[in-house]
Amino acid sequence: MSDLLLELFCEEIPARMQRRAAEDLKSLVTNALVDAGLVYEGAKAFATPRRLALHVAGLPTRSPDTREERKGPRVGAPDKALEGFLRGAGLSSVDEAKIVNDPKKGDFYVAVIEKPGREASEVIAETVAETVRKFPWPKSMRWGAASAEPGSLRWVRPLHSILCTFGPETEEPDVITVEVEGVASGNTTAGHRFLAPEPFSVRRFDDYVTKLEKAKVVLDADRRKDMIAHDARDRALALGLELVEDEGLLEEVAGLVEWPVILVGSFDKAFLEVPDEVIRATIRANQKCFVLRDPATGRLANRFVLISNLEATEGGAKIIAGNEKVIRARLSDAKFFWDTDLKTRLENNVDKLSSIVFHEKLGSQAERVARLETLSKVIAPMVGADEAKAERAAHLAKADLVSHMVYEFPEVQGLMGRYYATRQGEDAAVANAIEQHYKPQGPSDDVPTDPVAIAVALADKLDLLTGFWAIDEKPTGSKDPYALRRAALGVIRIVLANKLRLSLSRLAYAVQSHYRDFVVARPDDWKEAFQWIEKSRTPVGGTLSPTEAEKEVRKETSYWGMFNELLTFFADRLKVHLREEGARHDLIDAVFALDGQDDLQMIVKRVEALGSFLETEDGASLLAGTKRATNILRIEEKKSGQSFAGRPQATHLVEEAEIALAAAVDAARSEAEAAVRHEDFAAAMTALAKLRAPVDRFFEEILVNAEDPAIRENRLKLLSEIREATLTVADFTRIEG
Question: Which fold would CATH assign to domain 600-734?
Fold first, then answer.
């Protein structure tokens, strides 16, 4: 067995592309090798700012010979069929095929296709050349004189060299000869651009990694990340401070350096008057630096950590000074924005939102704020929030969008609103809601927990969903430009995390109520419809003509149809959320199949209780019995064209087993229904578990399709009673197993 070492050395690979490029290199090369019959033992790809590398271990030196028998048409088949067969098999005439007899189908042609194996070096050379030419960079360029020629090589940045060696560990590896657009392969590479730029030769992977380290290049991106994180934490600890962790920034800076060197700089303490989040955003965005926190106060310190790609003289003083100069300028801007924004009250910013278009069909941000005020006030009592505070928070929720700070740093919207509101004496719950109403913005983001923040957050997301549903801008496939799936999931997470007793239909009614006054999506249709509907319900104003009434009913029906569709969308999002939490998809479907199941907390409790019940012996046995009963009913209902719903007649219960089952069903259903009314689903499952023994006995002793039609119908009704009893908690027919 032999190993392949491949390196593609270029001018620069942007940090954001490196991970994907390494995976693409691995998949393109290894898939091509396997397709050629070269099965390997293991492979790993690497990326640095200047190179992509791949190590494939355990490759054979030659692909195996292959022999394939391809069946063709019958002897005597039309000429076109024979021509297609010969062409596909690579035969020049039918004489090169053999004839095989099938006792049932007669004689037919068979082509024997034998392919000799190939040297691995040949396959590798072709694969590497093809990979380089067709590499799927998101953005690429041409360079040099050849760039004027059509079809010339495109690469992320100019490609300088190709290192490609292949051979067993015990021998000197061979250089695989590859040439792409004048770039020829070899066994040499170069180290760090400044610290060790001289080329050096490489034999195999271990040798390659060792020599790169000596040449100031850390090949593995994850190791670079660990070095940066550990060294930064150590430097912070030495200063009595803490590193503010930032996984995204860590990933980015690890892709910017080949030899990470940690340095610490500082800035004027006067800038600490600016909110910590703004300081962090400024330093992160402009200089890709980490900030440090004082553990004693919990606030940021006036220090930052920068990652250099150089081992500079004098401890990197010049590098630190250069970064400090830029950061000082950027923080000066941030402080100016902060001071300027504080001179204007948030209240005075609200009118400016009229100039900001939320969506051309949904009006301005000011119109949206008006909707949020009404909806937040409606939702507030449902979540235990103060109505006046919820309305006030909604009124100010978007006011920071016209601030200087948010214009410069959009990622701090909401947060700056909280800071400004607090400075200007707004209630703490109102200020908190201004920030929290955007949450959660992702699966790992926290959800608001204060009632006022919950009310405004729900209003924000429901208004977003309703508005875009109204203008028919719904998610399609993988496209969701307005993040409506995220908004629906946000509503679900808020309700579940805070254990709110809110049904989806109740929320929909709240949105419907406030949209009667604030629909701007279709003013010539919807708003007019609402006005006419309200007029028809008002004693003063007369009644609508039949034509007008029909028109308004049609419009209101269409409106509620939209809401029903939106409720289905919510249900689908809840299913996705519960599956991601580990719930079985069939149990979710079994609960959703029940009518009126839109209380999110109750759906979750039902699914949990059902899952626990089915893990017991009683649950599994009852499920089997219920499915058997349902299958018999389905067959008989289809055959007879009638339903067997309804109570069985006691006078037609003749056998002891069916008498016992009828009594058990009545008792279990009554007990289960009472438990469900008290929202004790575990008790409901316990009640149903009592059916296991009488159901098993019934199927062992009773012939359902008795000769007497009356007894047969009565027994089928008894089976229907089993189905109805289990429907108190779930639709067992939708459960797998």
Answer: Isoleucyl-tRNA Synthetase; Domain 1 (1.10.730)
